[in-house]
UniProtKB/TrEMBL annotation:
Stored InterPro entries: Aminotrans_V_dom (IPR000192), Barwin_dom (IPR001153), PyrdxlP-dep_Trfase (IPR015424), PyrdxlP-dep_Trfase_major (IPR015421), PyrdxlP-dep_Trfase_small (IPR015422)
Protein name: Aminotransferase class V-fold PLP-dependent enzyme
Family annotation (PANTHER family): CYSTEINE DESULFURASE, PYRIDOXAL PHOSPHATE (PLP)-DEPENDENT ASPARTATE AMINOTRANSFERASE SUPERFAMILY
Residues annotated as domain Barwin: 323-350
Highest taxon listed in the record's lineage: Bacteria
Keywords in alphabetical order: Aminotransferase, Transferase
Keyword Transferase: yes
Single GO term (MF): transaminase activity
Organism for this UniProt entry: Streptomyces sp. R28
A GO BP entry: defense response to bacterium
Lineage: Bacteria, Bacillati, Actinomycetota, Actinomycetes, Kitasatosporales
């Protein structure tokens, strides 16, 4: 019988201590094989229909992980593109509430509109800052810089009370924190971090009524019958969120399909328990070394002030972490082990 450990070890064999999933996740072996097969299909001139089928299989797998009907999921490539789509749907003068120092892709398109009122508050004050007239609240579920987790239940209630819509980026939490996308208006993610897919794939979850979005980026793939929508204006947009699809990076979705299959086999609850146990082990070890991380209980991302400068020497020693604004950021995922944590702590104690 396959176990969590046996499934993971069959898929990953990192050559170093890789604690940098918050930047880029490792690819499972099955994903690497799917990418190679997709490339062979192109090289050999075979029909690419199976790659388009991979897009739909990946969409369906993500919908299951997100807890929403597949009809609410659009397939694209980046958070910035979909933030731009949401920003374009807002009327001039609309107020958008964002968190201080959130990831640029989540917030910048609202600023570049030029005619929106973008209000920035500390993450901890986000829910209490929703007020009458707030049109949209945009935030990352887990902060890229330091792993702090937004109080999403409080934000959801505040938004409902004041009639605001919610736009939640789960790029830094999608595999270890339940997405619960049905609880929010819009949920967005890229898939090359915690979902362990190739670069170039992402998803947007929209409400059943599309939340007022206009399909301003619609091309042929956004048609109800894509292959009949290749020339001239699209005469019938998809009846589902597929009307917000962007032309898919077929290789990326071919690989992503397999990565999401692995996550479903393992289960988000098991992944979360594994990831958070390692993060807590690191926090405990840091205390023993006299270091205090940025408070982020329940997060798989740990950020340590003042240690970012050690990233180059750690990398040279075969330990991959990130330097974020002077903080050392370590992120723990399913392919990591207690030995990885201990090796990082040992290196930091030197």
């Amino acid at each position: 019988m396959e176990t969590f450990e046996s499934l993971v070890r069959a898929e990953f064999a990192p050559k170093n201590v890789y604690l940098n999933t918050a930047s880029t996740g490792l690819l499972p072996a099955r994903t690497v094989a799917a990418l190679a097969e997709a490339a062979r299909m192109r090289a050999e001139g075979r029909p690419l229909g199976p790659l388009h089928a991979d897009v739909e299989a990946a969409r369906a797998a993500f919908a299951r992980l997100a807890g929403v009907p597949v009809e609410r999921v659009a397939a694209g490539s980046s958070v910035a593109a979909y933030t731009g789509l949401v920003a374009a749907s807002l009327p001039a003068g609309a107020e958008v509430l964002t968190a201080e120092d959130d990831f640029t892709s989540v917030v910048n398109p609202f600023h570049t509109r030029g005619d929106l009122k973008v209000r920035i508050v500390p993450l901890e004050r986000l829910a209490e800052s929703v007020r009458p007239g707030t049109a949209l609240v945009a935030v990352s579920a887990a902060q890229s810089a330091d792993g702090r987790i937004a109080d999403l239940p409080a934000l959801r209630e505040a938004a409902r009370e004041h009639g605001a819509r919610t736009y939640i980026d789960v790029s830094q939490s999608g595999a270890w924190l339940p997405m619960e996308a049905d609880a929010y208006d819009f949920t967005v993610t890229v898939c090359y971090k915690w979902l362990m897919g190739p670069h170039g794939a992402g998803f947007l979850v929209v409400p059943e009524d599309f939340g007022g979005l206009l399909p301003i980026m619609a091309g042929w793939v956004a048609g109800e019958s894509p292959w009949d929508s290749c020339y001239g204006p699209v005469t019938e947009l998809a009846h589902s969120a597929r009307r917000f699809d962007l032309p898919p990076a077929l290789f990326s979705f071919a690989g992503l399909r397999r990565s999401l299959e692995l996550l479903e086999e393992l289960g988000v609850d098991a992944v979360r328990a594994h990831d958070l146990a390692l993060a807590d082990r690191f926090r405990t070890g840091l205390a023993g070394l006299g270091h205090a991380p940025v408070p982020a209980p329940g997060s798989a991302i740990v950020s340590v002030p003042g240690l970012g400068h050690r990233q180059p020497e750690l990398s040279a020693a075969g330990i991959e972490v990130s330097d974020r604004a002077g903080n050392l950021r370590a992120s723990f995922h399913l392919y990591n082990t207690a030995e990885d944590v201990d090796r990082l702590l040992e290196a930091l104690s030197a």
